[in-house]
Amino acid sequence: MTPDASTAAAATPQSTPEVSLDLQVRLKTEDGQLLLLLPPETNNEPATGTASTWTELCQQLKVRLNAGERFWQPNAEVQLMGSDRLLDIRQLQEIADALLEAELQLKRVHTSRRQTAVAAATAGYSVEQQPPVSTLSKSADKPQSLAEPLYLQMTVRSGVEIRHPGTIVLLGDVNPGGSVVAGGDILVWGRLRGVVHAGAGGNTNSVIMTLQMEPMVIRIAKYVARGPEASPAQFFPEVAYVTPQGIRIGRASDFDKSQLMGGNG
User: Edge-to-edge strands of the sheet including 223-226?
Assistant: First the structure.
């Protein structure tokens, strides 16, 4: 090797791995909303710059909140984009506390994990659960089934919205100002006094069933109906479903699937 070649080789800088922003905690605005994006779960060796433990993720979040100029308004609401990351109530509280220190309020949690959706709803946050992204190729002509049912034991309070691509089973009440949106059926084992939307993807065979039907507004697919202005003297378990004439509400004991738009019994 000539001296020139040796010098050139020694002067060649070593390449450093490129850090993907998608694998880091990020804050950004989109359509006027302030989003907090968490990196997805991974079973592989962590890439450079990613948080491989919960402690590291929290540290990275605090750095993002405290570094540089704050581009948000005080007390702005934050939507947490959790992706497929598994979060429990304690971890969600740690995120909320870190945001609060930066004068931000955690409002809604987006997730593809049912356990995270349950934890977020139980903690009192609005929730939107997206179906997980499958890595397996699906046949184009094979219909995709609804997500597994989401079971919740809580009260959906005013200002809280729960969204799930499958059926939602709620042991508790939906208060006025609360909202439940499901791709499948909605079963409320309690008082339904808020807004509910079953069959949100267009399924007119979806139903809404509750022990006490006093909704502000109910929707099934594209059909909309308002609740009664006066409460009945006596309550029975009731079911709302779509007929050719629109949404009908009747006693659950008298309901038969043949009454549905596409039902055959």
Answer: 26-30, 33-37, 76-81, 104-111, 126-129, 161-164, 179-182, 195-198, 217-220, 223-226
